[in-house]
Backbone:
């Protein structure tokens, strides 16, 4: 069922879209900036844009503030070809997220403005108004669960997706600044993981869900044995461990000269899912996702740096290959 849904190449993505600002040229510190690159950001929006670049369809479910920043995000979703039928404008004190991050690795600074975030105003009514049967799979990132009413709406979307036969794909994406406390985050993210068919996260995120970094791999293994069909445990430069079909598979990474640390996880998810939808074997899908992550960290921007099928092919053809796991 999982791969059948993914192979429909039509994804419903729940979560935030925002505006990213990056000092120019690359290497400039924010405190020294005189000009900025402006681009679309937000984990879920980045994933959706990445999927569309691979020829898939993607629709975003979120809320944006009815102001210039929200309108900018709507225009960017249109420019990338992401369906925004389920993107709702809201009025009030809530605002669309803004991120200021540096295109530099050493002493990197990212500043995220998510006070009274507009995307947390997604409601149960919003997700109940969606025809889930018209999509192949549901994707969400952990940030959507960090506050109400978005948290309850996301869990309701899980129920409705499950009833419609859609696989649930969960990027843990733990961002401490979005949550009221670590205890709440641990409980809620663990609940979301238990309801998901495909779970992707890094070693710190699985460790957090398990109550300790050293317990992360065991948590990933447990989820794969108990509830999830596919679990990808990412370890940064050490590669990844993927649990699927009762097997435990280790893969390496594609080394590049990184210009920033942001966007890798979103690009991995888009490349991984798009590759599965194109009938690539699991190992190849994970490696292609890893290559996408490498491409994004080697370029400015997040959504703009997401590769297309052609760009990914050129990278793979020119690269020496992945590291040994």
Residues:
């Amino acid at each position: 069922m999982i791969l059948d849904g993914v192979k429909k190449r039509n994804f419903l993505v729940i979560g935030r879209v925002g505006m990213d600002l990056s000092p120019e040229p690359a290497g400039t510190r924010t405190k020294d900036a005189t000009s900025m690159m402006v681009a679309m950001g937000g984990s879920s929006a980045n994933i959706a844009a990445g999927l569309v670049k691979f020829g898939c369809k993607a629709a975003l479910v979120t809320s944006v503030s009815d102001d210039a920043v929200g309108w900018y995000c709507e225009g960017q979703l249109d420019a990338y070809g992401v369906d925004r039928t389920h993107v709702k404008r809201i009025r009030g004190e809530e605002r669309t997220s803004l991120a200021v991050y540096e295109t530099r690795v050493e002493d990197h600074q990212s500043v995220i403005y998510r006070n009274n975030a507009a995307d947390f105003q997604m409601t149960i009514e919003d997700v109940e108004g969606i025809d889930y049967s018209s999509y192949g799979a549901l994707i969400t990132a952990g940030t959507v669960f960090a506050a109400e009413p978005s948290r309850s709406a996301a869990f309701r979307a899980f129920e409705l997706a499950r009833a419609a036969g859609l696989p649930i794909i969960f990027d843990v994406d733990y961002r401490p600044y979005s949550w009221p406390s670590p205890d709440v985050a641990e409980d809620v993210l663990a609940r979301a993981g238990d309801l998901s068919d495909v779970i992707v996260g890094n070693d710190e995120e699985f460790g957090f869900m398990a109550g300790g970094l050293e317990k992360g791999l065991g948590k990933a293994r447990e989820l794969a044995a108990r509830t999830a069909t596919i679990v990808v445990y990412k370890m940064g430069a050490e590669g990844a461990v993927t649990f699927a079909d009762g097997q435990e598979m280790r893969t390496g990474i594609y080394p590049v000269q990184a210009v920033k640390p942001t966007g890798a996880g979103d690009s991995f998810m888009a490349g991984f899912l798009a590759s599965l939808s194109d009938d690539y074997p699991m190992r190849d899908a994970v490696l292609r996702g890893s290559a996408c992550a490498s491409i994004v960290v080697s370029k400015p921007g997040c959504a703009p740096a997401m590769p297309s099928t052609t760009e990914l092919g050129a990278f793979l053809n020119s690269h020496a290959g992945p590291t040994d796991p």
